[in-house]
Amino acid sequence: MATQVTAPVNAQRTSSFLRIAIALQTLTIFLQAVSAGLLLTSSYGAMLHDVGARVTYGASMLYLLAAVLAWKPGGGSPRPVRHATGFLVLASAQVVLGIAHVPSVHLPLGVLMFGLSVLALARR
User: What is the tens place of the pLDDT at every residue in 23-71?
Assistant: First the structure.
């Protein structure tokens, strides 16, 4: 009987963790846009954008971890894992493009990532 009660509770916890991870990722991507504006207008903007990039990449990894935890033990859909993997790939591309100073692709990709992250959050 305890297993029957515990399974829905664990599924609810992992679902909440996944929702929090997506919200964190969405927030960090938005803050990257803010720090990109500061990059253009202030001396400390570059440092904020650099630190924010690391935090955003970490948030993408957390999203992938949360998606795997929601899928594997609970037997849920693997779709969130595919979405989270895609975000991690996009975040990796963002890092490479940012280091290479290719703003013509880096900026639109950031906007795309923000839109997709908001969409993922709305679907949760």
Answer: 999 999 999 999 999 998 999 999 999 999 999 999 999 999 999 998 8
In this structure, the dihedral spanned by the alpha carbons of residues 120, 101, 61 and 87, taken in order and rounded to 10 degrees, is: 30
On the question of pLDDT at 101 being above 60, the answer is yes
Q: Own/partner pairs for 4-9, CB < 8 Å, 24+ apart?
A: 7/74
- Measured distance CA(122)–CA(113) in Å, rounded: 14
Contact 45, 25 (CB under 8 A): no
This prediction's pTM: 0.86
Cα separation of 6 and 8, whole Å?
Answer: 6
Q: DSSP per residue over the chain, as a string?
A: -HHHHHHHHHHHHHHHHHHHHHHHHHHHHHHHHHHHHHHHH-SSHHHHHHHHHHHHHHHHHHHHHHHHHHHTTTT--SHHHHHHHHHHHHHHHHHHHHHTT-HHHHHHHHHHHHHHHHHHHHH-
